[in-house]
Amino acid sequence: MLTRKQYELLIFIDQRLKASGVSPSFDEMKEALDLKSKSGIHRLITGLEERGFIRRLPHRARALEVLKLPENLGTADTGTAAAAPSPRFAPNVIRGDFTAALPGASVGAAAEAIDLPLYGKIAAGTPIEALRDYANTVSVPAMLLGKGEHYALTVEGDSMIEAGILDGDVVILHRCDTAENGTIVVALVDDNEATLKRLRRKGASIALEPANQKYETRIFGPDRVKVQGRLIGLLRRY
Questions:
Q1: Residue 148 and residue 196: Cα distance in Å, rounded?
Q2: Catalytic residue positions, numbered
Q3: pLDDT tens-digit profile of 94-120?
Q4: For 55, 111, 117, 213, which has the most beta carbons within 10 A of its beta carbon?
Q5: How far is it, in rounded angstroms, from Cα 90 to Cα 207?
Q6: Is the pLDDT of residue 27 over 60?
Q7: Distance (Å, rounded) from C-alpha 2 to C-alpha 68?
Q8: How many angstroms separate the Cα of 80 from the Cα of each of 45, 69, 71, 72, 114?
């Protein structure tokens, strides 16, 4: 029998794995379960592992696999139904190659794809404007896009892997100059360095958070950071 928190964490991990294929970060688990520290998450994961519900995958940072779910799904040892926490942000992953027509695809379905400008690889030290290459485009399902201007970038590096964003992914961004706290954005630092990070406002400062424990959060004054786009989805080719 699982405790209520163990149950909630197990369901949250299972939902995130099914949605994005990537385990949630410890910070996301902590926020989802409304815990004050990550030490509580460590204890819950150890408990689930000892009971055979999950296992840690070797040689991969914080990678978890759900081995089973409770037979009596929906209850914990509190004797009451345990509501699973709502998953935090996870990008929409569109799998496959959208550059080639599928056999049997109708003309109407093809018309629902929109070509977006595909800029180069987003990497430290490169402003977005310097990446513009109008010769390259990527076809994106129209249903993925909302109003406004959009563009795409190729991700380079592993600084956002715990948010489900991998090296080589193509991220789809809504061009904007402001974003809500906690949103993953393309940020331009000192009018020179473009980076894909989670935006956090802390008083008069702006923090750019990676989603990989190997990297540190960077904090800047508000006049040093400009938002250039908000992440709305990504494309991944296998």
A1: 20
A2: 159, 197
A3: 444 434 433 332 233 344 778 888 877
A4: 117
A5: 20
A6: yes
A7: 13
A8: 22, 17, 15, 12, 48
